[in-house]
Structures are given as structure tokens and as C-alpha cells.
TrEMBL record:
E.C. number: 2.6.1.16
Protein name: Glutamine--fructose-6-phosphate aminotransferase [isomerizing]
Keyword Transcription attached: no
UniProt catalytic activity: D-fructose 6-phosphate + L-glutamine = D-glucosamine 6-phosphate + L-glutamate
Length: 371
């Protein structure tokens, strides 16, 4: 009923709007007396100190949450982090031992490939930490420790609020590792955590601007394909934007690392093709920003219709943006938490304009428990 959907036409929009709470609830209780706490009973500081390599294994949107967190975890901890599709990881011969931490990310905690990846990792004696949104599900039951995301039940088949919560949880894993290893001082950990704790407010700000994005979505309903480009943390955001569009609008969509443009994707650019570009902050990452401006000018010169997500006050990108979606200024490593939100809305609105059921896209299941 409309009441269940909080007055919205579909659950997904309600769940998109619940993202500030999902983030805040996931962070709550994990910073106590100046320390980041994961799962006190089951993963000690000593366990974390012994870790010399991290794998994140997951499927779908949860996999993208790992790709986002990799940038921060490597930067904070100086540990190598590999992010793998669970369905690939489990059939490879990954190099694991008791000092490997495997983070298994799953909203449902029941995804077959992720569960098998957990079993595979434990057979090799690796320590497994589940990041899960469902109390007592199979994946946390079979893991050494669990960090719950508190996004609440998610009805929409395509993940939204659990994605943001997974990113927050993965980042807390990074902070806990940095704290145990001493690669960051206590005051730096506190600063990073506070920045994370400010993100629900930043997401709320983005939600205040989505009406324009909905209009934009309706105007793209007849597009044949949409490309998504990003660099650095904007790259996994581009992948997630493209996945959402495929899932909901059944449209051909692909995400690319902007640096790869000349290695293929630029051949796809033709008159009127919508290209969504996730811009880094001009202040936070000036070099990347300049490179992206040059990428956009190249594709615009070839006729692309550019839809640019950029930090508010980013004047340099304006001349190259046929459409501009402004984002609040936030720390670079956390930008995916705000940049993803307009892309979720865009996909949902394009799907709706095409007459599709946003909450139950064809051929997809909320949780894939058979391979
Ligand atoms: C399905 C859902 C996705 C989800 C993926 C992984 O494909 O439609 O939204 O990201 O499964 O699910 P999990 O429960 O393991 O996070």
C-alpha cells in the first residue's frame, strides 16, 4: 500500500530516502572512548594486528561497496586489499592463510556464491568477517566475526540503502585495522570517524535536491544506452550507476574508468549519447579533476550529452556539463556516499518513465541463493 511505501509510489524511493538513517544506525555504537569497535567478542585487536592482507568478497552491489572501500582501507592501513566477485574467488586458487582477513559483504547473508567463498576462505584458515544486514543469516553464522549494517529491511530488489551502509561498515573495518596496526594515530582515527559520522547529514542534503534529477531521468527515458565514467573512488560509483540502470530500466549501461577512455570506450561516443560523469573534488584531488575535465571536453566534442556530478562551486566543469548535478563538498574517500544517491534516483525514474516496476525488476531476485 502507499502507506507502507511512506507515501511513495515505490519502495525504492522510500529506501533511498532512508539512507541517512541507514548510515547513522550502522555507525552508532562503534566509536567508544576514542576507539573504533567492530565485533568485540569475536575479533580482538591482536587478531586485527596479525592481518597482512585483506580480501573483500561479495556479489552485485555489495561487491561495489568493497571496491569503494578499497581506496580508503589501503590508504589508512598500508595493507594490500583485493576486492573479488565471490563467484570468481571461490573457483580460483586465491592465496590465503591465517593472517588473511576476508570480509564477506552481503545484505541478505544468504547469497550462495558469497557463502561458498566464506567456506573456501575458512578451509584455507583465513579469518572471515561478515558484513551483513540480516541478523543470524547463514553467512554471519559461518564467519568468525560479524559487523552488522543497520539499514533495516530492504524491499526493493535493487540495493540502495544497504549499499551506503555496507560502505560505512567496510570503512569501519579499515579504521579498526589502522587503529590496531598503528598506521594512524588515535586523533586521526577520531577525525576520520567524525567525518564518516557527518555523512548522514550530507546525504540528507543531496536528497533535498533530487526533484531535478527525477526530471532529468524522465528526459532520458528514450535513450538507447548510457555510459558512466569515473576515476579513483568515482570509478566504482560509475559501475554501481550502470548496474542500477541495467537492473531497473533494462537499458544498456556500462561504467568505465575514465583513464580507459582512449583504450576503447571513446569509440562508443556518438551524437546525443548520454554520458554520466562523476567528478572528483577540485580541491581534494586537483590533478584528477583536471584530467576529468579534459576527458569530458573530449567526449563532448564528439557529441556526447554530458551529465556531470560535481562538487558545488566547481566552476571549471560547468562549460562541459550539459546537465549539472551538484554534490555537497565532502572528503574524497567518502564522496561515493553522496555521489551514488542521484544515480539511484536517476535509474528509478528512467525505469518508471519506461513503465517498469521499480521494486520488482524482471528476472531478478532479492537474494540469489542458487547459483
Ligand atoms: C542480488 C540483488 C542485489 C544484491 C546482490 C547481492 O543481485 O538484486 O541488489 O546486491 O544480490 O546480494 P547480497 O544479499 O549478498 O548483498
Amino acid at each position: 500500500s502507499a502507506a507502507e511505501k511512506g507515501g511513495h509510489e515505490y519502495f525504492m524511493l522510500k529506501e533511498i530516502e532512508e539512507q541517512p538513517e541507514a548510515l547513522a544506525d550502522t555507525l552508532r555504537g562503534h566509536f567508544v572512548d576514542g576507539r573504533v569497535i567492530l565485533d568485540e567478542q569475536r575479533m580482538t585487536d591482536q587478531d586485527l594486528r596479525d592481518v597482512d592482507k585483506v580480501f573483500v568478497v561479495a556479489c552485485g552491489t555489495a561487491y561495489h561497496s568493497g571496491l569503494v572501500a578499497k581506496y580508503a582501507i589501503e590508504h589508512w592501513t598500508r595493507l594490500p586489499v583485493e576486492v573479488e566477485l565471490a563467484s570468481e574467488f571461490r573457483y580460483r586458487d586465491p592465496v590465503l592463510d591465517r593472517d588473511t582477513l576476508v570480509v564477506a559483504v552481503s545484505q541478505s547473508g544468504e547469497t550462495a556464491d558469497t557463502l561458498e567463498a566464506v567456506r573456501h576462505a575458512r578451509e584455507q584458515k583465513a579469518r572471515v568477517l561478515a558484513v551483513c544486514n540480516t541478523n543470524g543469516a547463514q553467512i554471519p553464522r559461518e564467519s568468525d566475526a560479524v559487523l552488522y549494517t543497520h539499514a533495516g529491511p530492504e524491499v526493493g530488489v535493487a540495493s540502495t540503502k544497504t549499499f551506503l551502509a555496507q560502505i560505512a561498515a567496510n570503512l569501519m573495518v579499515g579504521l579498526a585495522l589502522a587503529q590496531a596496526r598503528g598506521t594512524k594515530y588515535a586523533d586521526e582515527i577520531a577525525r576520520e570517524f567524525n567525518e564518516l559520522a557527518a555523512m548522514p547529514e550530507a546525504v540528507r542534503k543531496v536528497l533535498g535536491t533530487i526533484e531535478r534529477v527525477r526530471d532529468l531521468g524522465r528526459s532520458l527515458a528514450d535513450a538507447k544506452a548510457v555510459l558512466f565514467l569515473g576515476r579513483h573512488v568515482g570509478y566504482p560509483v560509475a559501475l554501481e550507476g550502470a548496474l542500477k540502470l541495467k537492473e531497473l530500466a533494462y537499458m544498456h549501461a556500462e561504467g568505465f574508468a575514465a583513464g580507459e577512455l582512449k583504450h576503447g570506450p571513446i569509440a562508443l561516443i556518438e551524437e546525443g549519447l548520454p554520458v554520466v560523469i562523476v567528478m572528483p573534488s577540485p580541491k581534494g584531488r586537483a590533478v584528477l579533476h583536471a584530467k576529468m575535465v579534459s576527458n569530458i571536453s573530449e567526449i563532448q566534442a564528439r557529441g556526447a550529452h554530458t551529465i556531470v556530478l560535481a562538487e558545488e562551486g566547481d566552476e571549471a566543469v560547468r562549460p562541459f556539463a550539459d546537465e549539472l548535478i551538484e554534490l555537497p563538498a565532502v572528503p574524497t574517500l567518502l564522496q561515493p556516499l553522496v555521489a551514488t544517491v542521484p544515480l539511484q534516483v536517476l535509474s528509478a525514474e528512467i525505469a518508471r518513465a519506461r513503465g517498469y516496476d521499480v521494486d520488482k525488476p524482471r528476472n531478478l531476485a532479492k537474494s540469489v541463493t542458487v547459483e
